[in-house]
Q: What sequence folds into this?
């Protein structure tokens, strides 16, 4: 609505069902210091009472603006979902001054944080453009909390990137990963977090792979395969999924509709993999053309409509992170996971184990943020509702907060030691920004 004050609510996200202390501050001219203001709390997903466009029938509270023009008040938001806060001068409750939106979460999600991740990216160690460390810095500058470097057939580049970033004060988490290329199996598989990786097994223990896939075929695991599925490739996929689980990683089925010559995965194969839940997650969105991603989302919804669980992720499959790069920063995932917590070197950051467990539990949403287009989210409705709010109200500001940190990280990793101290300050500021957004900030006055 034009003419309204641009207003920030802190925290922006909090727990439903218990009283929350929050602060509302507005840009110039701001809320008049010393003046009483009325705040109405309108659940966005409910219909207003008939003939009550201002929301007078809904709960409200009064607050007097402090010397800086900020309003501080308390309210218990009754249920999960987005809320409009309609703000008026108490003396004139018909003239709307501001209308920020906030989000209340039930206790299970309120204990988690949305971490933006990319689970599929390439460096110059395979067919990407940038060295691993440079790629990592550019992910942070784009507003990512974590990314997995998944070069073709090798895991060592991700270990290199992880070590480089771990030696800095940045808040970015680098996940070890690889794009798995099983022998005699044309399907690619993304593996994140497993130790020591599947490709190393193919290289060092080829007999184990051959023996164990043959055992899967003899054990009856291939009975009832639909027409069009090669039994040897199916046994290979089962082996990879089980090996990744044994190694403690996440297995992701990527880009079935990627077209290199024919489609990467025949439809019968893609459907059966998803119906059988072979892998931990499905790359609903990837570094594909829009029509290919559209078909992947249709495939996701088709299998979910059959009552089968499918965990959704979005990944860029980026092969470069420069200004002219395609796919980088276009597709990603919100993973809802706990922060590392007190005692950790980066208490506000996710942990690899937390990300892994969240994806396996289905606490992830695929995101599409193509330049010049409205953002979109794909996954279970409850998580998509929350993700769409975050895409509008949180991600743009978080990207801006991360940008300086990422630029300084690239300088430091490039050999500029003078960037270390400003990087530490920038990373601390990024952490403070997150703390103000999600309930738990404002410790000085929230008790």
A:
């Amino acid at each position: 609505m034009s003419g309204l004050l641009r207003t920030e609510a802190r925290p922006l996200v909090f727990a439903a069902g218990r009283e929350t202390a929050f602060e509302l501050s507005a840009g110039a001219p701001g809320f008049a210091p010393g003046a009483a203001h009325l705040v109405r709390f309108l659940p966005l997903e409910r219909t207003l009472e008939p003939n009550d466009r201002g929301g007078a029938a809904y709960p409200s509270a009064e607050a007097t603006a402090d010397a800086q023009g900020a309003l501080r008040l308390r309210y218990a938001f009754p249920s999960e979902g987005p809320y409009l806060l309609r703000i008026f001068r108490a003396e004139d409750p018909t003239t709307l001054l501001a209308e920020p939106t906030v989000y209340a979460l039930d206790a299970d999600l309120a204990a988690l944080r949305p971490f933006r991740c990319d689970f599929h990216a390439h460096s110059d160690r395979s067919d990407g453009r940038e060295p691993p460390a440079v790629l990592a810095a550019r992910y942070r500058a784009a507003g990512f909390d974590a990314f997995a470097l998944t070069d073709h057939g090798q895991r060592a580049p991700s270990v290199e990137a992880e070590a480089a970033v771990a030696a800095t004060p940045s808040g970015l988490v680098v996940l070890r990963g690889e794009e798995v290329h099983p022998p005699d199996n044309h399907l690619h598989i993304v593996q994140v977090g497993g130790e020591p990786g599947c490709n190393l097994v193919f290289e060092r223990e080829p007999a184990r792979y051959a023996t164990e896939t043959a055992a899967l075929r003899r054990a009856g695991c291939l009975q009832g395969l639909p027409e069009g599925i090669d039994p040897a490739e199916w046994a290979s996929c089962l082996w990879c999924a089980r090996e990744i689980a044994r190694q403690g990683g996440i297995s992701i089925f990527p880009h079935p509709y990627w077209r290199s010559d024919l489609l990467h995965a025949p439809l019968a194969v893609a459907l059966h993999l998803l119906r059988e839940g072979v892998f931990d997650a499905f790359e609903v969105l990837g570094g594909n053309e829009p029509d290919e991603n559209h078909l992947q989302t249709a495939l996701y919804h088709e299998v979910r409509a059959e009552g089968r669980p499918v965990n959704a992720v979005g990944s860029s499959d980026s092969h470069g992170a420069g200004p002219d790069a395609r796919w980088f920063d276009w597709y990603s995932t919100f993973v809802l996971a706990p922060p590392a917590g007190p005692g950790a070197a980066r208490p506000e950051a996710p942990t690899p184990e937390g990300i892994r467990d969240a994806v396996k539990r289905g606490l992830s949403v695929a995101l599409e943020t193509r330049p010049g287009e409205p953002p979109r989210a794909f996954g279970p409705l409850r998580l998509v509702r929350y993700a769409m709010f975050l895409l509008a109200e949180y991600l743009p500001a978080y990207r801006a907060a991360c940008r300086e940190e990422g630029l300084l990280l690239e300088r430091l990793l490039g050999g500029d030691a003078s960037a270390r101290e400003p990087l530490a300050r920038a990373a601390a500021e990024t952490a403070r920004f997150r703390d103000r957004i999600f309930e738990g900030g404002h410790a000085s006055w929230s008790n």
Confidence is low (pLDDT under 50) at residues 441-447. The longest strand covers residues 81-89.
